[in-house]
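General statements about sequence and structure are easier to judge against a single worked case. For one protein, we set the task of working out the structure tokens from the amino acid sequence alone. This step matters because it turns folding into a mapping between discrete strings. The amino acid sequence and the backbone structure tokens for this protein are reproduced below.
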Amino acid sequence: MVSQHNDTVEHEGAEHHDGMTKGKIWRVFFYLLALTALEFFIALALVHGGVIEKGLGVNIVYIILTLLKAYYIVAYFMHLKYETFGFIMSITIVFLFIIYFIVLMLTEGTYLKSHYNPFPFWPNP
């Protein structure tokens, strides 16, 4: 007698998520499309049209919209939303350290450029 083999593999204790369905993919696509359209509207109609002035407020709005778009891309298209908390935190902490390192190097470079000039024939502007 031949025993039948089940082709599906089940993991005990592992959570199973539904994943991305076509509906979710399209919903996230339209969220990203709306955020991008909002960015273009702010840039072309409001700032270029002279309704609002370029400045810190506009830059903060751009940064917030870009971070929101990055969240949707990472959470849904890179499937990080369905991962465990430990994995999410390990990626987030590493990312924050990289950002901190970049800010630290830019600050140090600006300080050295303004306070140390090894070439006196080429003064800082």
User: Anything to note?
Assistant: The two ends are 88 Å apart (CA to CA). Residues 21-82 form one domain. Residues 14 and 67 are 31 Å apart (CA to CA). The helical segments are 22-47, 56-77, 85-115.
